[in-house]
Amino acid sequence: MAVSIRDVASRAGVSFTTVSKVLNERPGDRTAPETRLRVVQAAQELGYRPNAVAQSLRSRTTDIIGFYTGLISLDIMDPFHGAVLNGLQHGCEEHHKDLLIHRKFFGDSPEEIYKDLSNRKVDGIVLPSGCDDEIVQRLKASSFPAVGLAAPDAGLSSVYVDSVHGFRLVAAHLAEKGHRRVLYRTQRRDPEIKIEDSERRCHAFAAASAAYGMEVLVTEAPEDGVVTEEEKSLLLAPPSKRPTAVACWNDRYAHQMMTFCRRHGLQTPGDLAVAGFDGFTLPYDPAYQLTTVRAPWEECARTAIGLVVTMTGGNPVPDETVLPVELIHGDTT
């Protein structure tokens, strides 16, 4: 049977109110030091543990930070999802908070989900920014502490990596290597899940490439990054007509392109240069070092938790927090 405050009061020989004041560290408490010591010793001897639910009701806080994923199903085997989850967990550990993951299911109404997220089951929430999810829009319009992750978003304090600068670095690198016709692989548009950062990366690379005098062909690929028939026709065209380099919106797409090159006898970087974005370490040795942009996604998520905690304390936070990226020169370009 759980030990109650009344049990502690009986052991210490004081009133229920005195125990409550001491254990809850109420401001202005004038309990005598010797009485306080008796209460603390009695609580330790009895193994008293405060009721978390009762504490939450009194303080109107839960010490829980939520993470809303929208329609995206988290895959811990995915390097990006793994980095984000690690960052969220480390951020919560740093601030002594728990983490609650919440996603949107088909059939759930936006009103139901919004109420579930904002009914104080959590003190604040981290959510994907730069998307047109209705839940995100409602949270932005409310006073509920919320921080966006992965892209800038007007009306929402956001933490993201400088992907625009990253793809400018990629364009400059490919131009320096002498490339003039480049393929850019972006993700296929999904009417249910719009990820604005993929568009920002594409626009940044295209603009920078044009400034260097490079021609850019843009193709869309499925989520798994497998090379499409359209891309095959471009890459297997006569050498004088095909691209000499491929820039991919993430590393997954780049690794799939490397697989395609190996299967079709294309030498990298001799026949085709390949560059990615993210900079994740693979759980296996791919026998090549991918040229990529290292993005600190784990630090991005950890920072987002810290901003939510700051907001829950009633303190201001910056509209945007941008983390720097780094071009990693591999042997694929």
Automatic annotation (TrEMBL):
<dbReference type="Pfam" id="PF00356">
    <property type="entry name" value="LacI"/>
</dbReference>
<dbReference type="InterPro" id="IPR010982">
    <property type="entry name" value="Lambda_DNA-bd_dom_sf"/>
</dbReference>
<protein>
    <submittedName>
        <fullName>LacI family transcriptional regulator</fullName>
    </submittedName>
</protein>
<dbReference type="GO" id="GO:0003700">
    <property type="term" value="F:DNA-binding transcription factor activity"/>
</dbReference>
<dbReference type="InterPro" id="IPR028082">
    <property type="entry name" value="Peripla_BP_I"/>
</dbReference>
<dbReference type="Pfam" id="PF13377">
    <property type="entry name" value="Peripla_BP_3"/>
</dbReference>
<dbReference type="InterPro" id="IPR000843">
    <property type="entry name" value="HTH_LacI"/>
</dbReference>
<dbReference type="GO" id="GO:0000976">
    <property type="term" value="F:transcription cis-regulatory region binding"/>
</dbReference>
<dbReference type="InterPro" id="IPR046335">
    <property type="entry name" value="LacI/GalR-like_sensor"/>
</dbReference>
